[in-house]
Specification:
heterodimer; A: mainly alpha; globular; B: 258 residues; 0% strand
């Protein structure tokens, strides 16, 4: 704990790197997954293909992907870009499965009402169905955010920056207080990001807040 | 592509598989870390999930434990463990078990808590004790979700067990981490490829187990005692667990909210 307080400067610098490496992929993944998920939603064959490839991508261990990626795309080994591409892939893989499922869950009467008042297919998707899918998306995003933060920490083993550096440095210098400081910093970071996404999700879905009673499971 | 060629050459050379530091031994070590950690996590998480799911008391505890443990960095716990307890099986087991507990706990809890109350009420009205309701009705119906949690846990542990090598332990991470340390990237690639194959194989295997555990689907029918109203009973129990409810804020495997 004292280590953390004595090294607030470097903690802040490392936190910024950590956030950059874990949150840029989160945004990119979201930007890819939502349109992709919406496009494959009503197309059974495409949807199966997407789900299958997403599960295979998700199965590849992150540390392995960091190392293998330079072979597939023109980046250098041990480059930050590898981490960003790899984590973007994971984010997309997780969210792209959630989007069609969330769209499936939109009640039929809501859909019928929307088309009855004259929404076009696209308008209905953008203004009715996707907004109703937000709670499922935020749930997915929270899991991905926390996972990404811990994956970046593991990346320090192969020389990737971020707060995980305190683990490898502390281990080599036999300083357990530095490792403890790293654990606390990453833990706090993960919890804060998690709560921020939760709060943002609640903020943009006022209708969920309006009726807090849980729907009884069917 | 020469790295890939070198890596594949290495993997497909029989000499590299034998011995105490060969590929075979490293794979066994890797599976050993994974197996022990998942077993320890299951021994801790499954009973807690069963009790909380059955009684409905302490669901808050499940949600907060799951979220908190997810945020705990495995690498930090592992390295701290090595500094505190020295080398050995204990640090990786503890670190990886902490990683495996959230999905197992969430899966078990969600599985039991989502069993149709009509079924448990029917079981009680037939005179089953609470223990029998849990073991004969709730557990079989929750099995797909419990095993789904086991699948997620195993996948994460097998992928993360590579970091054990950083703490001078064995496993497939040795190739990955040593390869990077000595700048022999084809060696790192050997580790990465084998871990990926191992993860895909284990995941496929467990996906099969989850599929086989769906209740009332008629698989393994011959070995099950046949109730008189065979068909009706099967249809009733089958429909629920095969169509998880995705509506609303909660998705089945990830316990969200707080």
């Amino acid at each position: 704990m004292r280590y953390l307080l004595n090294h607030l400067d470097s903690a802040w610098a490392l936190t910024l790197i950590h956030l950059r490496l874990s949150l840029i992929p989160l945004l990119l993944g979201l930007l890819i997954a939502v349109p992709l998920g919406a496009v494959v939603w009503r197309r059974t064959a495409l949807r199966r293909l997407t789900t299958l490839s997403a599960s295979i991508i998700f199965t590849i261990p992150s540390l392995a992907l960091f190392v293998v990626l330079p072979l597939i795309i023109p980046t250098r080994i041990l480059d930050e870009a590898n981490v960003i591409v790899a984590l973007t892939l994971y984010t997309t893989a997780l969210l792209v499965r959630a989007v069609p499922e969330a769209l499936d869950a939109v009640p039929v009467n809501v859909r019928d009402a929307a088309s009855a008042i004259g929404y076009s297919r696209i308008g209905q998707l953008l203004k009715v169905e996707l907004p109703l899918a937000i709670p499922v998306l935020t749930a997915g995003l929270r899991v991905v955010a926390v996972t990404n933060i811990s994956m970046v920490a593991v990346g320090s083993v192969i020389g990737i920056g971020g707060l995980g550096v305190w683990f490898t440095e502390g281990y080599q210098a036999d300083k357990s207080d530095q490792i403890v400081a790293g654990i606390i910093a990453i833990f706090v970071l993960a919890v804060v990001i998690d709560l921020l996404i939760l709060a943002a999700g609640r903020f943009i879905t006022p209708w969920v807040r309006a009726k807090p009673r849980r729907r009884a499971s069917a | 592509m020469s790295f890939l060629q070198q890596a594949l050459d290495y993997i497909f050379t029989a000499d590299n598989w034998g011995g105490s530091a060969g590929l075979g031994a490293r794979i066994v070590e890797h599976l050993q870390y994974t197996g022990i950690a998942v077993a320890v996590a299951a021994v801790i998480a499954v009973p807690i999930g069963l009790v909380i799911g059955h009684t409905g008391r302490g669901s808050f505890l499940v949600v907060s434990t799951v979220n908190a443990l997810r945020a705990l960095p495995t690498l930090g716990v592992l390295l701290l463990g090595v500094l505190m307890w020295g080398l050995g099986l204990l640090p990786p087991t503890a670190a990886l078990a902490l990683l495996a507990i959230p999905p197992l706990l969430a899966g078990t809890y969600a599985g039991i808590a989502n069993v149709d109350p009509k079924m448990t009420d029917a079981a009680r009205s037939m005179g089953m004790s609470e223990r029998r309701v849990l073991t004969r009705v709730e557990v079989p119906n929750a099995l797909p979700l419990i095993l789904g949690g086991l699948r997620t846990a195993t996948l994460q542990v097998v992928a993360t067990a590579t970091v054990a090598a950083y703490a001078s332990l064995g496993g497939l991470g040795r190739y990955l981490i040593d390869g990077i340390k000595v700048r022999q990237f084809y060696l790192a690639l050997v580790g990465a490829l084998l871990v990926t194959v191992l993860a895909l194989l284990l995941d496929g295997l467990l996906a099969l187990v989850v599929w086989a555990s769906m209740p009332g689907s008629g698989r393994f029918r011959r070995r099950m005692p046949q109730p008189l109203l065979d068909d009706e009973v099967r249809v009733d129990t089958g429909t629920r667990s095969r169509t998880p409810d995705y509506s609303g804020e909660q998705s089945s495997l990830t316990v969200e909210g707080w």
